[in-house]
Amino acid sequence: MAGAGYRTFTAGQILTAAQVQNYLQDQSVMVFDSSAARGSALGTAVSEGMVAYLRDTNSLEMYTGSSWAIVNDNAASIPLSLIQAQGDLIVANGNASVTRLGIGASQGLLYVNGSTPGWLAKGTEGQVLQIVSGNLAWGASASGGMTEITSVSPTGTTTVSFTSIPSTYRNLYITIANAKYTTSNTFSLTVNSTANIYATSTSTGKVDDANLTLISNSHGNTKGIISGYIALKEYAATNTHIKQIESNIDYRDSAASAGNDYSATTRTARARLTSAINAVTITSAGGNWTQGTFTLWGVK
Amino acid sequence: MAKENPIIKIVDCTTGEEIERPMTDEEVAIYLPPVEEAPSEA
Prior knowledge:
heterodimer, A: 300 residues, mainly beta, 7-stranded antiparallel beta sheet, 2 helices, B: 42 residues, alpha+beta, 17% helix, elongated
């Protein structure tokens, strides 16, 4: 039987039928036309380690003790000559067929190109991996940062209202540059033309101010030049009960140059609003604005 | 002669259109409410 081991025959020794069976026949590679022919020929005379070659499938099989199993896939065996260089990859290029994929350039990425593996060469400094026209590619990062939505001079008006603000940004940012209005008073902010929803970080109790006062007339000379910014965070969100608003407004006497002639007011505030902000209004209570620029930015 | 309300400049951020006109009384009430008490932060 297969598994009888190896025997060295000596000159003049009698070769028994069992030795022929066990050492020569059962341990050789038997050749059959098919698995059916093998079954008919061997019946139950099978033992672990038997090896048979089937002509119809060109497969080499061995008996595991319970069934016949393919030793290799024969035609699918991978010839060593396919490998040519360090880093070569062997990949399937069809049913029971393989091919060589040479290693790509340094820093390349292995990816599926159509239906086959391929290399994506590295990008250049600063590029990011992205989809371009449906394909994986390195390219410049998508535009981010701040985008100017609009800029306006408030001169001749008390109130500037930005309306139909697109909801495509994450935050809004309003810069106020070199603005000035007629008489000392406050100026304030309102969103969505809605009053009585504002409070600052120093508010106590359930406060709803009519609007968000950005500077108070109790500070300095508000007839001076005003510059600063207002940030409206997550302005397009509809899943929160408030909108956070921060501002820092610097104001100083228009004729002054000394450091102590200017002051600043910082606000951390909220607007009690669940809907997206689509309008922002800035109003001077001190008469018309006489100069300056208001710029609305969208921040990604 | 009735006093004219302050001027508001409205900028449509989608179309870029700008218009200036006197505010309505409703807008004055919203944007320039009478000061009845100090704001929450002085």
